[in-house]
Amino acid sequence: MRAPSGTGPEVAVGDVLLSVENVSLSFGGVKAVNDVSFDIRKGEIRAIIGPNGAGKTSMLNVINGFYHPQQGRITFKGETRPQMRPYEAAHGGIARTFQNVALFRGMTVLDNIMAGRTLKMHASFFWQLLHFGPAMNEEVEHRHFVEEIIEFLKIQEIRRTPVGRLPYGMQKRVELGRALAMEPELLLLDEPMAGMNLEEKEDMSRFVLDVNDHYGTTIALIEHDMGVVMDLSDRVVVLDHGIKIADGTPDDVKKNQAVIDAYLGVAH
Amino acid sequence: MHLIYQIFIDPFVQMGSAPDLFVQTLWEGLVAGVLYSLIALGFVLIFKASGVFNFAQGIMVVFAALTLVGLYAHGVPAFLALAITIGVMFLLAMAVERLVLRPLVNQPEIILFMATFGLTYILIGFGELIFGGDPKVMITDQLYLPSGSYTIKALGGFVQMQKIDIAAAVIASAMVASLAVFFQKTRIGRALRAVADSHRAALSVGISLEYIWVTVWFAAGIVALATGIMWGARSNVSFALEIISLKALPVLILGGFTSIPGAIIGGIIIGVGEKIGEFYWGPLFGSGIEEWFAYVIALIFLLFRPQGLFGERIIERI
């Protein structure tokens, strides 16, 4: 497979790919994210963890441009902005999956993953209307790429099934496929293993590691299952009530008293 | 006994005894059906991409036709007028996206539906202001659309076919075929369907909602223009045409709101059903069946197959 081909300057492995600085986001009086800073380095698997309502998904939505923070800066590939927009994020090479699966339910698995190629395809409106010439060649070429992803995720036998009919675990896998079709530089996974049984979790963990290994994709993931997080991730940032309480390797974080308190609760 | 004979046997005897008349009625129905399909197609396009039932589609037909005829009346050459009208439909699409859809993003569908009501009355007022309310004649000859008719000797009688009807059928088929392929097989088509399914997922893969909405409304505008020309050529161009958009409802119920082939087949079933019903069963009810027959067909469908012939079955997981 080809190297990621987002726009902007190349970032070397180990350098900072994305950083958020002093980001605050509130909805009315509720502070969802409060003055949070961290970075994501190229090539790593970065986990964002925390108890319910810690602001993890809000953080992901900020990175991806769905939410616009009131304060702070986001630097992606050396470019600093007060906020992202979804199109900029997608165009720059940020792909994501959703906590409660957002697929195109009426479309087949194949079409869903092909939709991930939207930004990579350029044939003009005119040729597409005729469904001929450059538009046809392009379809064939991208279909080829999509078939590789389908093979990688081992979902060959369901390629023509409308995704609305698939079991939940499979839907999650298709959603990962759609994100991969964007050849992302940064892949945001919002609870990729939520609601899965042990076997499905193991499959998904393997896919996440493989994506990181084979394609060198940088991954930021939110996960509740501590076991999974500790096994998968290179570095972990811990949020609680919108505030960053810890940041470091899994081992460091595990020993951190603030993290233990947040997860187990403390006597007040 | 006599009534049963009249309903179930007599019409078929008539069909058999005068096959030329039957074929003629069938043809009339087919042509009306093709035009219904065209209107329904405009609805389906917008419904697919934004989940909005666009009440203004009927008036868009009138508005497009009026613009074309009005420009010609002011001395603009026919084909230039056609090009300008296409431009106007594009501007309309942009305006709708910017002024109606964008401020109402993420609002419930009923709100968007009501907004299209508003749009209808704006277009009526705007159209009357500029072009006046009196009926106008479509510039058929100037656009090199054929007039006159073929008379075919067949089945022991004559079948008459208006050339404009044949042209309408050909143009409509071409339009429908290209749109169907466009929707199913291309990047933009896929993006359109994606937007219809999930806004946030579409945004996450970098599809721009603005672009998609302008595209569908423009496509619906082009379909409206074609419909306006064809209907205008058969009667004339006036605001009364807006009523035909109500006929699109039974067509959509029959075909399914999200299916392009459904719109076509639904349109043809309604068109043919109406004409045959009127001709053979009409006298039993003192005529006028044509006005309501379509709605009865639609009601029956609602009872047994609410998603229509080709609509996507909605499966909710609980």
Describe the structure.
- The complex is a heterodimer of chains A (268) and B (318).
- With 268 residues, chain A is α/β, with parallel strands linked by helices.
- Chain A folds into two domains: 1-93 and 184-268, Rossmann fold; 105-182, no CATH class.
- Chain A has helices spanning 56-64, 86-92, 109-115, 125-130, 134-152, 168-181, 198-214, 226-232, 250-255, 257-264; strands at residues 16-27, 30-41, 45-49, 71-76, 79-81, 94-96, 186-190, 218-222, 235-240, 243-248.
- In chain A, strands 6-7-8-3-9-10 form a six-stranded mixed β-sheet, sandwiched between helices.
- In chain A, a hairpin with a 2-residue loop joins strand 4 and strand 5.
- In chain A, helix 3 packs parallel to helix 6 (168-181).
- Chain B has helices at residues 2-17, 19-50, 57-73, 78-101, 109-131, 163-185, 187-197, 199-204, 209-234, 244-255, 260-281, 289-304, and strands at 149-154, 157-162.
- Chain B has a two-stranded antiparallel ribbon.
- With 318 residues, chain B is mostly helical.
- Chain B has a single domain (2-304), classed as Orthogonal Bundle (ABC transporter involved in vitamin B12 uptake, BtuC), CATH 1.10.3470.
- Helices cover 72% and strands 4% of the residues of chain B.
- Chain B is globular, with a radius of gyration of 21 Å.
- The A-B interface holds A 64, 66, 86-87, 89-91, 95-96, 98, 102-107, 111, 114-119, 121, 123, 125, 128-131, 135, 138-139, 164-165, 178-179, 181-182 and B 178, 181-182, 185-191, 193-194, 196-198, 200-208, 258, 312, 315.
